[in-house]
């Protein structure tokens, strides 16, 4: 039995534009892939690159960040700050082996319910094609090489089970 | 004469700078040596593994362990010291977060071995001989430690009680830590024994740091004549101060060198590199993608720059291959 891989995508949507657009998509009954888990933030500028890395580390296959179009930010400059730091984050992710497609930044205004649909559908398909990232699984696999020895040194006793810090 | 508390020093994948920092205590080291019994210190004194193995569990008051964990032998030693010690202090940047050795987490083990034993200029190894974990010779079995596929921080292998940050920790912080241990006035477990403030707070150049950096380019130190008074970031030099813990009293910026982040982050930060990107790069000047990219081109090696001492503690832990 082979099941189709369903990517898990964490989406950070800004309160003023993209979240409103997702809401509009909902009330307009537009159907789109159920693979995004939307987190509402007040501004795309609230999204720290740490959030993106943490989402991947906790099992996301993709991270989508939606904000207002440049010039339309409720807080005037928030989305410019987002753009600058996310351009740097993309370079960093690439250097760490997470390539284009798993992380995406999109400007979606409150009127663009249809864009939410097309972006989510498109990203879901692209991440599906890339396959699972499964970082939590990789962490466990990487630590296997040190666990064998742990049992040896501690004489096989499990009294001090080590919790590996991430 | 009552028994003096037993103390152990051990090193894993490290350069020896942390050992040097202990010696840098200068005359204060006599206070330490007078107050404790050193039962293990491979760099300075001759003790064998069997000596430590023979000790009862928890009989060592404190083990100071520096260096990243890279091989099976280091894992074995640190696990043994954990069993034999009441308190384990992760000593220095390599033990805390992988340090410089952790930059190897950008490469696969096989690629590293191939380079070192075959491709590196100057290597003469036509048979492509590599160290083997086990080999038989004239009826004897010889063994070598195994190189792990990645570099780990000490707390990714064993439970750690306290952290002394820095590459290396300053003598002042070491002495404060030793005194706290000897007096029994211990902070809560997991404490980093250094002030929990950003380095910029301690920097003499702080007053010249603008609210908005509005950078238009990044320069490397050899490309400009650095103004010794002005904030280094404001001069376009990557200075990790905003994302780094204080405690060193801004030694490097004081010496006209940018901070490279060896003290690790403050307690509010989960990932030092990502936090640095968050704080500094939102404040560069351009607004168009192409102009932003031109500024970012000034940093050719983002991982080596933002995770110089902390790649093991990056939330992703290593490059995914």
Overall SS class of chain B: alpha/beta
In the sheet with the most strands of chain B, the strands line up as 2-1-3-5-9
Query: Would you count the extended β strands of chain A for me?
Result: 4
Number of helices of chain A: 5
According to DSSP, the number of beta strands of chain B is: 9
The residue ranges of chain A in which pLDDT falls below 50 over 5 or more consecutive positions are: 157-161
Topology order of chain B in helix (H) and strand (E) letters: EHHEHEEHEHHEEEEHHHHH
Order of helices and strands of chain A: EHEHEHEHH
Molecular shape of chain B:
globular
Beta-strand portion of chain B reads 5-15%
Q: Regions of chain B with pLDDT < 50 over 5+ consecutive residues? A: none
Strand content of chain A: 5-15%
Q: Rg of chain A from C-alpha positions?
A: 19 Å
How would you portray this structure in words?
By secondary structure, chain A is an alpha/beta fold. Chain A has 5 helices and 4 strands, in the order βαβαβαβαα. The model of chain B has no long low-confidence stretch (mean pLDDT 94). Chain B has helices at 17-23, 28-35, 49-53, 72-84, 93-97, 109-119, 171-183, 251-254, 272-281, 289-296, 302-306; strands at residues 6-11, 37-40, 60-66, 69-71, 85-91, 134-137, 140-143, 147-152, 162-164. Chain B is an alpha/beta fold and 321 residues long. In chain B, the strands form 3 sheets. Chain B has a 5-stranded parallel sheet, sandwiched between helices. In chain B, strands 4-8 form a two-stranded antiparallel ribbon. In chain B, strand 6 and strand 7 (140-143) form a beta hairpin. The radius of gyration of chain B is 22 Å and the shape is globular.
